[in-house]
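Re: that chain you flagged

S.,

Sorry for the slow reply, it's been a week of failed gels. I finally had a moment to sit down with the sequence you sent. For the record, here it is as I used it:
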Amino acid sequence: AHASNGTSVAFNVQARPTGQWLIGSSRQFDAIDSALDMPLLAAMLTRAQHFLPALAQMNIIRCWTGLRAASADGLPLLGVHPRHSWLWLALGHEGLGVTTALGSAALITAQIGRQTPEIDDSPYLAARAFAAEELPV
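Prediction finished late last night. Pasting the structure tokens below so you have them in one place:
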């Protein structure tokens, strides 16, 4: 996942077909609920206005937040479940699922085909998340 462990804001904007703009984004690695954090929203909008000053004249019509699924160690879990050979996992990418999709797919494809992947897959093996405890499936 990202090389950060604190709260951070970034800037991205997407034009929507409705003429509205979708503005984001932020990360809170210690958040346990999806309640809207107003100071974080203010920081995000301040950053966005730095790049697009016209935003100061616009109205906000909706805000939302959510949780990004991440593994405990920050790396995605890729590979066969250690106790259920029919279950393949590709999860815990945090906010990088789309960005890392091709690499994850290449690793999973090599694993399923019992081939050597182009990169070392040992840091990503799903089995590491199940070594310490029994989790029902």
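What I noticed first: The chain has a mean pLDDT of 86.

Talk soon,
D.
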